[in-house]
Design brief:
By secondary structure, the protein is α+β, with helices and mostly antiparallel strands. It is 51% helix and 14% strand.
């Protein structure tokens, strides 16, 4: 009889092609079905290491179906929600930063797949051609949008 893995430790199996596959549950859909993330490795030991890293990185996250939303889609939704609470000039500035800088560079990425490295590269690219005060304002805008996405479990 095979040993059972502890609860919350993911699922591990050997595939027909010889690779090892790991799967963890990172959230639930509206109908109650699980949302999975998959990890692959050539050996079971490597898979266990990768799986542990994924479990740690998703700790405390409770993703929803909207987690596949791109940053661009989220920015539209966020601006809509903020339109009533922001002053007109602030809203205009946020729209400008989003349309001219954030959307062209990071807009196509899924929210759940944006990494700190992506954001760091974005800031480095901006600092080559913009003043540091402008980069700081763009950072404030992006930080606010990502924080709101995190609070919405996206």
């Amino acid at each position: 009889m095979a040993k059972r893995r502890p609860s919350g430790d993911g699922m591990v199996r050997k595939r027909d092609d010889g690779r090892w596959e790991g799967r963890i549950v990172v959230g639930r859909k509206e109908n109650g079905d699980s949302i999975f993330r998959y990890v692959y490795a050539p050996t079971q030991k490597e898979l266990s290491t990768k799986l542990r890293q994924h479990i740690d990185s998703y700790q405390g996250a409770d993703l929803t179906e909207q987690s596949r939303m791109t940053l661009s889609e989220w920015l539209n939704q966020w601006l809509e929600n903020m339109a009533d609470t922001l002053r007109p000039n602030t809203l205009r500035n946020y729209r400008s930063y989003i349309e001219n800088h954030i959307r062209p560079n990071l807009g196509d990425k899924q929210l759940a797949r944006i990494t700190p490295k992506d954001v760091q590269r974005f800031y480095e690219k901006l600092s080559d051609c913009l003043a540091s005060s402008t980069v700081r304002r763009i950072h404030t805008t992006l930080h606010g949008t990502l924080k709101a996405a995190q609070q919405a479990h996206l």
